[in-house]
Automatic annotation (TrEMBL):
It comes from Candidatus Yonathbacteria bacterium RIFCSPLOWO2_01_FULL_47_33b. This is PDZ domain-containing protein. GO terms for molecular function: metalloendopeptidase activity. One of its GO terms (cellular component) is membrane. Pfam families: Peptidase_M50 (PF02163). It is found in: Membrane.
């Protein structure tokens, strides 16, 4: 079921991205030769006007063929050359290339806004909306990799009901009281709710997990459900999307900075195998949690595509910037070679990350 959900999510995210390129190219008067759902071999096709719409066998996204995106003799000097991507202004080219990123962010905004309309998990400590949060309870917001909490099976989204240690009991815990209770005991029983199930697990706090006190490796917040009317949901969705996008961007920049100084932790990255597991966990928590996860993945896809790396949209935008500065196009052989090398490096990175995902599963 998790794999099936992952395929659907991946298809929606990639189709939204490619649809952005498609719409931008059409609006700019660029010829679009094909818009495909899935990847070949082709199952069905229909030509409408100048564009072929196709349905393909592998349902993991889609693609768009924009005339002149990869320059050749026809797009450079053929009868339809004026409508090719390569002969459009740099501003138009940048808009077409960047539209996929924009559509992924728009998709995230829509999904988060729908989440707020349906009722989204939200902090009761928030200054603006905290007073309107319903059913607030102490909630696990993050679990550190390799921590006692992760080993015990505690997950983000679990509601903490009570903590027990021998004769000591902490019911209706708050962030500060829970932290104090955890740090003052060597072993405790952790009672929590996941979905509609109430569970208990024994956890042993450790020194060194966080600075200054014994801990089990979780972040907590007093959170509940925030439900907003349409106009407020759209506004809150926009703010949340902007906040997540900025946090993702700064996090990726920090990660690449750590690569250069030899401190990057690849175990913090999840590839397809890891995401399948995350999707499965989110689906058990309910539709709204799954919706939020898809929005976050869409934001990550947008930010990663923005990186100035060959084979990504950011790399293509970087080449367009270089051409605009130098006043002449880069030789197609150079861009094609750079994109090919970039694609191979991305595949290698994906292999490394997937290996890490599998290793973490086997370790568990």
């Amino acid at each position: 079921m998790s794999i099936f959900l992952f395929i659907i999510i991946l298809a929606v995210l990639i189709l939204a991205h490619e649809f952005g390129h498609f719409i931008a190219a059409k609006r700019a008067g660029i010829r679009v030769d094909e818009f495909g759902i899935g990847f070949p071999p082709r199952i069905w096709k229909k030509k409408v006007g100048e564009t072929t719409y196709s349905l393909n066998a592998f349902p993991v996204g889609g693609f768009v063929k924009i005339f002149g995106e990869n320059p050749d003799e026809e797009s450079m000097h053929g009868k339809d050359a004026k409508r090719s991507f390569v002969h459009k202004s740099k501003w138009v080219q940048a808009w077409v290339v960047g539209a996929g990123i924009i559509f992924n962010l728009l998709l995230a905004w829509v999904l988060i806004s729908v989440g707020f309309m349906a009722g989204l998990p939200f902090s009761a400590e928030d200054e603006k909306y905290g007073a309107r949060v319903e059913g607030a309870a102490l909630t696990v917001t993050q679990v550190m990799s390799g921590s006692p909490a992760e080993i015990a099976g505690i997950k983000s989204g679990d509601y903490i009901l009570a903590l027990y240690a021998g004769a000591d009991t902490l019911e209706d815990p708050k962030v500060s009281t829970a932290q104090k209770f955890i740090s003052s005991h060597e072993e405790l029983t952790f009672a929590y709710m996941r979905g509609k199930d109430i569970r208990t697990v024994i956890v042993r706090p450790e020194d060194g997990v966080v600075d200054g006190r014994r801990a089990i490796g979780i972040s907590m917040d007093n959170a509940g459900t925030l439900k907003l009317p349409v106009h407020e949901a759209l506004y809150a969705g926009a703010l949340t999307t902007a906040s997540f996008t900025w946090a993702t961007l700064t996090g990726i920049i920090e990660f690449f900075k750590n690569i250069f100084v030899g401190q990057a932790d690849f175990s913090e990255i999840s590839g397809p195998v890891g995401i399948v597991g995350i999707v499965g966990e989110a689906s058990t928590l309910g539709f709204v949690h799954l919706l939020s996860l898809v929005a976050i993945i869409s934001i990550n896809l947008a930010v990663i595509n923005l990186l100035p790396f060959p084979a990504l949209d950011g790399g293509r935008l970087f080449f367009i910037l270089i051409e605009a500065i130098k006043g002449s196009p880069i030789k197609p052989s150079i861009t094609n070679t750079a994109n090919g090398i970039g694609f191979i490096l991305l595949i290698l990175l994906m292999v490394v990350v997937t290996y890490g995902d599998i290793a973490k599963i086997l370790h568990k």
